[in-house]
Every structure is written in C-alpha cells, then in structure tokens.
Amino acid sequence: GQNIDQPTEMTATEGAIVQINCTYQTSGFNGLFWYQQHAGEAPTFLSYNVLDGLEEKGRFSSFLSRSKGYSYLLLKELQMKDSASYLCADMDSNYQLIWGAGTKLIIKP
Amino acid sequence: ETGVTQTPRHLVMGMTNKKSLKCEQHLGHNAMYWYKQSAKKPLELMFVYSLEERVENNSVPSRFSPECPNSSHLFLHLHTLQPEDSALYLCASSQDLGNEYNSPLHFGNGTRLTVT
User: Looking at the complex, does the CB of residue A45 fall below 8 Å from at least one CB of chain B?
Assistant: First the structure.
C-alpha cells in the first residue's frame, strides 16, 4: 500500500529548533520531498532526499532513512515567517508523488 | 511571482453553472498538473499533461474536464459540480515527468472554489 504519515500540527517558539517527522510506506521509492505552504499561497519546494543521510540548506535540513521509511525536516533558529504547513511527499516506482496531509507549524514569540 | 499563474483566485458557483479555471506557466516546463487540496487531506492528483498530451487521469468525475491547448496553458472546465467539490485547486508544472530530482513541482497560488 501507499501511505504517508506526519503530525497534523506542531507548535514551537521563535529562535528554537523543531523537527517534523514523516513516515512512508510505498511500493518502490524514488525520493522524498518536503514542501512549504504558507496559508493562501502556493506550496514551494524545500528539499529532496534519495540517499540516506542529512542534507543541510541553511536553517533547514532534511534527513532520510530508507530502511526505516522515515524522514524528518529540521528547522533551526525559528522565525515567525516559518509559520506554515510542511508537506511531505514520496515518489513511488511510477514516479508518482504520494502526499502526506501536511503539518501545520505554529511559531510563538 | 511563482512562475505559475492561476485565475481566478476565488470562485463561487452554483451547482448548475459552468466555469473554467485557468493556469499559465512562464517557466518553459513540459509537464503540467491539476491537484485538489481539501482541508487536512493530502493533495489529490487529478490530471497530468506532458507535452500537451494527457498522461494521467486519476478517476476524476467527468464534471471536471481538463484542456491543454499548448505547453504553457492548462484549463479545468467545471460543470454541474457538487458542494463536496469545494476545495483549493492547484496547478503545477515541472520541467519533465519522471525526473523530479532535477525538476521539482512549481505550484500556482490556487483557485479557492466554493460550490453552493
């Protein structure tokens, strides 16, 4: 079957660090994506992992463990503008994206 | 400016109306997509076009009818919709199909559709 699980909502404090987890169960695997979506706006691409390990891009990092079917998005030095939904999606053997329902991240001062 | 423009941003229509959603991409991409986004649900892929040919139709009701006249434009024609069709409809493009490592999806801001 094909299933993506991520928490519905998380709250964190400005300046802190937050980790958003995503687990997937997909027949075939061609990579794991993270997108950011601010309310009323388009989802925008954040990261892509196809090999195990951590990919760092400024304040945002993404991790993948293929053996565990697990990824996380790590956001450091949180800013108020990071309040958004974070969408996890994995690409199956047919190069179709399977999406999670998204994690709404609320940043408090 | 996302490179993918959708109009209108908001649309309210009755169940007997006919309307169309428009999407235009200025990125020179070869693939275009329609997605439906409902609250607290995963994105649902509706249609995929590659080089103006439809390559995917995920069991979408016939009251939704896509049209891709060229690689830069994509339409979604709507008729006799139901209230449960109310959602955010997102258009996206990518350089090619099946190669998203080099070509992530670029989304438009969506059309917020309300069916009354």
Answer: yes
The label of the residue with tokens 């940043």 reads A107
In terms of CA atoms, which chain A residue is nearest residue B42?
A: A101
State whether A33 and B2 contact (CB < 8 Å): no
Across chain B, where does the E strand assignment appear? 4-7, 10-13, 18-25, 31-37, 44-50, 53-57, 64-70, 73-79, 87-94, 106-107, 111-115
* Residues B105, A101: C-beta atoms closer than 8 Å: no
- Name the residue with tokens 């830069």: B72
Structure token digits, residue A7: 């928490």
Which residues from B are below 8 Å from A48, CB to CB?
100-101, 104
State the CB neighbour count (10 A cutoff) for residue B45: 19
**How far are the Cα atoms of A4, A34, A69, B64 from residue A53, in angstroms, in the given order?**
19, 15, 13, 41
SS3 state at B85: helix
Q: Is residue A1 exposed (0-12), middle (13-18) or buried (19+ Cβ within 10 Å)?
A: exposed
d(CA A62, CA A47): 7
List the pLDDT tens digit at each of the 109 positions of chain A. Answer: 468 999 999 999 999 999 999 999 876 788 899 999 999 899 999 999 999 999 999 999 999 999 999 999 999 999 999 999 999 999 877 777 889 999 999 999 9
> Is the sign of the CA dihedral B24, A87, A17, A39 positive or negative?
positive
